[in-house]
Amino acid sequence: MSNRKQKYIIIGVLCLVVVCLSIAYAVLSANLRINGTANVGGEKWSVEFVQKQAKTIPKGKAVCEIGDITGTSITNMSAVFQLPGDSCTFTIPVENTGTLDASLVDVEGKETALSFDGNQDDIAKISSWITYDVSYGNIKIDNLTNFDNIDTLEPGERETITLKVEFKLEAEEIPSEAVTIGNMGRTFNFQNKTNESTITPTPDTTPVYHDTSGANTPVLSDNMIPVVYDETRKEWVKQDLDKSYDYSQQVWANAVTVVEDGTQTRSYYKKAKAGTVISMEDINTMWVWIPRYSYTIKSENGVNYYGKASTENKNPTKALPGEIDIKFIPVTQNDSEGSA
Known about the structure:
The chain is mostly beta strands. It has two domains: about 25-200; about 205-290, no CATH class. Helices cover about 5% and strands about 40% of the residues. It contains two helices and 24 strands. It has helices at about 120-125, 265-270, and strands at about 5-10, 15, 25, 35, 40, 45, 45-50, 55-60, 65, 70, 75-80, 85-95, 105-110, 115, 130-135, 140, 160-165, 180-190, 225-230, 235-240, 255-260, 285-290, 295-300, 325-330. Strands 7, 8, 12, 15, 16 and 17 form a six-stranded antiparallel beta sheet that branches. Strands 9, 10, 11, 13, 14 and 18 form a six-stranded antiparallel beta sheet that branches. Strands 2-22-21-19-20 form a five-stranded antiparallel beta sheet. Strand 5 and strand 6 (about 45) form a beta hairpin. It is elongated. The relative contact order is 0.18.
């Protein structure tokens, strides 16, 4: 008997799966280091805070002291809090007034613990509800181990550094008296990367795929970021969309959305280059693209459609069905012959 076929078309969809600052050094050559501002071979190195434009922004009943600023160092900042929701935000522009590009390569002071001054009972009530974030532009930097995604500060350019300390609104207890938080500050280290011999590249283990199946290209919403899983790093990492899947190898196109402000900002991840690790703490949804395809359930006897026979299953039955032919088809095609 002739082989009969039943055909079905599935339209490609997105399926939700569930889901202080001072110039510490400037490297101009393999052996040359400069502290502060200097002239070298006709070039000028100068990256400093614009002290006159430093600002403090108190919220609630907070009292904020910006502390001491030297070059690109800020120390002895303090904040006085009593009520949940109190916060101090300190903003300081850093400017490259030299003739050499400057790259942020390190931040010192992240390991320094905050100090608390006040009644011991009040300190116990407030200490676990204090957050302290430091940002360079829109990038949170205290969690960074690699600064390659931070734009170079070119001659004449400025960037804003923001330090924010906050008494979380969700705090369960209110201190009877105000508590002073101190020991805040950071040192930002900049480097001129013109001499590539000073840079040791990290091997890139980001998977790269090239789809040859003919499946329709994934369409992502604006807030979605294409990702691949890096088995070496055991992390989800950003990848260019056209290099993130290969249906012929059963590697599906995956994407994530991230919180606006987590261990890193959404803006940081959107601008980041391929290979950037996306923290699971920041991922709030994970998606997989299912491309448009057709499938065919064959009949070996023209009566019962139990699937196609194979070497392993020569006589498909209802209890032990055979293979289903699947073929990816373009969006312009209404039907297709299945092909295993």
